[in-house]
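[User] At your convenience, examine this fold.
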Amino acid sequence: MNIMKYDKRVILEVMLLMVALLDALYLTYHHYHINIMRPAVKSFCSINSFIDCDSVALSQYSTLMGIPVSSLGIFAYAFVLLSYVFLKNDCGEKIHLCLAGILGLMFIFSMYELWISFFILKSVCLMCCVLYFGITLLFLLFLARLRQVWSKNLVKQIFVVCLFKRKILMKIATFFNIALFLAFGADRAFAQYFEKIHNAEVFQQKQNTDQSFIKNYYALKKEAINLTNSPVMGAIDAPLTIVEFSDFQCPACAQRSLFLKSLLEKHNKKIKIYFKHYPLDQACNSDVKQPFHPFACQAAEAAVCAKEQNRFWEFHEALFRDQRDLSNDYVLTLARNLSLNVFDFTSCLTKRAGKVIALDLAEAQKLGINYTPSLYLEGRKVSDILRSANDFDILINHLLDNAEKKRGDL
């Protein structure tokens, strides 16, 4: 009798394995899409700062020895699926003990990944959780099957009936190679696909000197932004000025700050970057009507007080690095770690910092800002029109070339 045809639990287990395999394929696709393309628009599974697939995919824990964890998942799920479907009739219920061991290792690794998400990254990947749920359910189903057929001689029977038969060993080797080929092939296909698109976009941007976004830039209204006493990074006499309105609890702002830092290193002495506060926190921002970033105001005020002691940028970097924990205790500990005068720091927090934040918020409201990060280049709001980091780079080069030509004409 064909067990695969009539056993509903087997059909459920096979379907779970297929869903898990498809999920692992999607996560590999997503990994390369996020890491190579760095899209401006978030993925559908990045809902807020906690449920954020993109942050998890960008973290160092998304790979193992340089290989996406999801690619290893493709191999594991494909091998278990093939072995289960095509060896079940050869080994009967004994196949559950063989595969329960593999699933057990996968379950342990999944729980480790889940622990990393909750306690280190403090962000979870929704599609990863589908895998964690699937492997847990599969492991429990296989253990339940195992209880039904368990006997003292079961392990011995498995070696005699399943693993010592040449035909079965040949099948296992074949399934291993097929799963390895599928995982490697999918991994390389997704990587090369996005690298090809990325390289084509870069090439097109470099070749096309009359990009529409440059025209759009000049169509934008040029705003006068009050930068008095705002923190600045870069040469003060640099020809180009970037102004960033940011929120220390905003994940996209943390990524953008790294990009701006790399931009400053690339265009040394040619650009300067001003920082303006726009915390998305109803505690100090009247534009925010419901709880969103509950520690953003106090983090901004702490940064203001760090600036009073000439340590703004060190404080800025630390806040973005540890933005999941911006409590009062954290900012005071950070102040001590940066050797700030804690008495002056706390005095600033209670007496002066709120007024500085209020001035930045008033400036933002005058400009009509309602999101972070909002970027201005030479007074024009470019965060609305730029699609990628390459666009920003090309626009800066374009403006610098124009500045050079103007100086040459004088």
